[in-house]
Each structure stands twice: as C-alpha cells, then as structure tokens.
Amino acid sequence: MAAINKGLEWITRMAYVNILWLIFLLPGLVVFGVFPATAAMLTIIHQWLQGKTDISIFGTFLETYKKEFINSNKLGYMFVLLGYILYLDFLFLTAAPDAALYLTIPFLIITSFAFSAGLYAFPMLVHYEMKPLQIVKRAFFIMMLNPCQTFLMLIGTMGVGSMLWYFQGLALFFSFSILALIIMMPAARAFERMEKKSANLQAKENQSVLTKQQRKGGAML
Asked: SS3 of 68, please?
C-alpha cells in the first residue's frame, strides 16, 4: 500500500508540473513563455532528483520563471536561430541534388550534434550560474565528453515521443514533465561526472604545485 501511495504521489506531482508548464506559457504569450516555463519545470525536477521533494512546487516554479525569463529566452532563441540556419541548409540540399550527394552526411552529423547539445542547454541553465552564450559553448563540450548520457537522452526523447504519439490523451498531463525527467536524469549524471573530473584534475595540480614547492624548499636547505 505504501508503494502504491508513493507512486500515486509522484504521478500527481508530474501531472501538476506539466499543467503548470502549460499555464505559464500564457504570461509570455507562448512565444516568450515556453523557455522560462521549461527552465522552471527543469528546476523543480532537478530539486527532486537531489532529494528535495518537500519544496513548494508552485512557489519554486513562479520564482524560477521570473528569475530566468530573460536568460532562458536568450538561450532558447540561440538554438532556434541555429535550428533555422540548419533548416535553410536542408532546403538548399533538397534543391541542389548535386550538393546533397556530398553534403548530406556532414549536414546530418552537424544537426545531430546541435540537437544533442540543445538537450543539455536548459539542464545546464538550472544547474550552473552561466551566461547563455557560455552554456551554448559548453553544451557541445559536455555532449561530446558524455556519449553514454547523450545516447540515453536521445533514446529517452524518442521513446517518450513515440509513447505520446500512440497515447495522445496523456499529453495534457504528462508529456513535457516526463520528457523533462528523461532529459534531466542523464544530464545531471553528466554534470556530476564532469565536476568529479574537474575536482580530480584540480587536486592533481595542487599536489604537483605542493611537490614542486617542497623540492625547492629542500634545494634551498
């Protein structure tokens, strides 16, 4: 019975966050509301993954929505611009068969990299204190250094998309919250791995500096 109650509690939470995401599209007239609402939803899920399940969902959502309104729109529309450029490239390839013969594979690789990096962008926004342009640059870096997590994000995204295609009635209550969870879990794992690597490198550098200082001190004696 306890397990059932716990499951129902999480189902309710996910549905509530999804409905909040839909509602908060409206203050930004959808066009400017989608990215801050996404940042707010990912913030809540990030807190849950850290074990902070007792937070105020609505209060945290509203606070993050207002705080990240500008930065999230900057970040989101950077990727929209990138997507538009790739779309123009796609139109060029479809209109020029000779060019498509040589450029299709590079185009697909670049598009895959851009999409994969985009999956990391908003989790990074809620995890780090970074400017949008810094996030765009580092998102590609983290994506390439964490192939397993990137693969899980891509598979999870396609899986959720397929599920919602066949069960469209779930879209209103769970579509974006489940997708956010699927993206946030491997992203958080990737961030943790990067931070551990950075800490280990820093520790080695500190140890190297300390060893050099000790050697200099011994030489002076």
From this structure: coil
d(CA 143, CA 149): 8
Q: What is the per-residue pLDDT across 138-179, written as a single tens digit (0 to 9) for each?
A: 999 999 999 999 999 999 999 888 887 787 777 778 889 999
Q: Find the domain containing 122 and state its range.
A: 2-220
| Single pTM value for the model | 0.89
Instruction: Name the token pair of 173.
Output: 């209550």
Distance from C-alpha of 119 to C-alpha of 199, rounded to nearest angstrom: 25
For residues 192 and 204, what is the distance between their CA atoms, to the nearest angstrom? 18
Give the integer Cα–Cα distance in Å for 65 and 40. 5
Mean pLDDT, rounded, of the chain: 90
17 and 173 Cβ atoms separated by less than 8 Å: no
Q: For the chain, what is the domain count?
A: 1
